Amino acid sequence: MKVIEKLHLIQQEIAEACARSNRNPEDITIVAVTKYVTIDRAVEALEAGIQHFGENRDDGLQKKWEVLKDKPTWHFIGTLQSRKVKNIIDKVTYIHSLDRLSLAKEINKRAEQSVKCFVQVNVSGEESKHGLDPGQVKEFIEQLAQFDKIIVAGLMTMAPLTDDEDMLRTCFRKLKHLQTEIKQLDLPHAPCEDLSMGMSNDFKIAIEEGATFVRIGSALVGE
Ligand SMILES: *Cc1c(COP(=O)(O)O)cnc(C)c1O
């Protein structure tokens, strides 16, 4: 199936999820996760009108960047080793996986302009998942004030791999509550307006629970 056809289906599903939850589809940004696909397929996605691209490895991002350059807005969505920061920092607008001060320090050192970061939270508490425990998030974000290039755009989570709708909903709802708490702190470096949550199998539920960025790979660009 062509990317444009998949995009139309997803836009339709987003519109329906927004209607169910009284939200405006314009408030949802689709990030096409191109990590599994060829450069040709990424070019097709760009031509279909997708403006936001996500990659989870520095080498994958670099390869696609060589062809697409800054035509899309780039998001780094995966675990980021500090020593890899220098390879991606001049290419990305958003980093979705800020989860430790040492990484914040490196981003701050390498960035030439401010970087919009999502603080990754391990809401479900699964050991295999990266991210801060929900209880650590407030203090972590307060400590980020020392890094003048870091803007906390919002919070990010990966839900557990399950079809259990209640479990997914609970996970997304917890992140939304946490975001509201952080926003209320009114920290200049942490507007925390956004929620990066929802992937191919759970983006509809994530939108119903307040996602503003959905990161969609297989359902959108999968071959
Ligand atoms: C791969 C990946 C996605 C997209 O996954 P799909 O299930 O293919 O939609 C989203 N977020 C992160 C962090 C990923 O690594």
TrEMBL record:
The modification N6-(pyridoxal phosphate)lysine is found at residue 35. Keywords: Pyridoxal phosphate. Residues 29-222 form the Alanine racemase N-terminal domain. SUPFAM superfamilies: PLP-binding barrel. The keyword Translocase does not apply. InterPro entries: Ala_racemase_N, PLP-binding_barrel, PyrdxlP_homeostasis. Pfam families: Ala_racemase_N. Belongs to the pyridoxal phosphate-binding protein YggS/PROSC family. HAMAP family: PLP_homeostasis. Pyridoxal 5'-phosphate (PLP)-binding protein, which is involved in PLP homeostasis. This is Pyridoxal phosphate homeostasis protein. It comes from Siminovitchia thermophila.
